[in-house]
Amino acid sequence: xxxxxxxxxxxxxxxxxxxxxxxxxxxxxxxxxxxxxxxxxxxxxxxxxxxxxxxxxxxxxxxxxxxxxxxxxxxxxxxxxxxxxxxxxxxxxxxxxxxxxxxxxxxxxxxxxxxxxxxxxxxxxxxxxxxxxxxxxxxxxxxxxxxxxxxxxxxxxxxxxxxxxxxxxxxxxxxxxxxxxxxxxxxxxxxxxxxxxxxxxxxxxxxxxxxxxxxxxxxxxxxxxxxxxxxxxxxxxxxxxxxxxxxxxxxxx
Length: 253
What we know:
The chain has 253 residues and is an alpha/beta fold. Helix content is 36%, strand content 26%. α4 (114-127) crosses α5.
């Protein structure tokens, strides 16, 4: 069974400008690490560095990814995609080809014969909450709501039984009821599958609900890392204090 997935000493830059500086994180099975910070702090780039999916123009100048203590080269890191790491992006509509059915997205992801792939797809769609999974594969992304697409994306991320999920703002642009349903679903994946989850968010209510640990990024650097209870009780860095105070003010209003 896979133990830990670790990122150490990550430095990213683009056009001569440092974007992420000396960031180290470790994911553990059946635990949730919340990665928080304001927009532009480097959260998404840090997440994309784990499966080596950095956007064009962004260069990794330093940093290693290791699995169970074994440092991986770039080829091995890319091999983690799907098998060891599942990725759930924000704004799920952008993660689907609008000209391709939901079913084809699955059959192109699952390395098995068509009948087996269809059965596996049906099981996954049911697992993520579709009551009539047989109705989904022939639909196009435009025929699904945002919440349904996010469920389908989570099912796709689970296709090859990854040990870890990277969820980048998974409740963005969803209404409050659907947000709660998606968070419940992720919570179940951690509890039932033993998945290690990196949850990227700017919403501290999401962190309070799901996370075991909290890491805070500011201007490309990791400025705080604490257990979730300690983070809310005694935030240490000024950015953390500002985040917690804003969260308390919002819920006191």
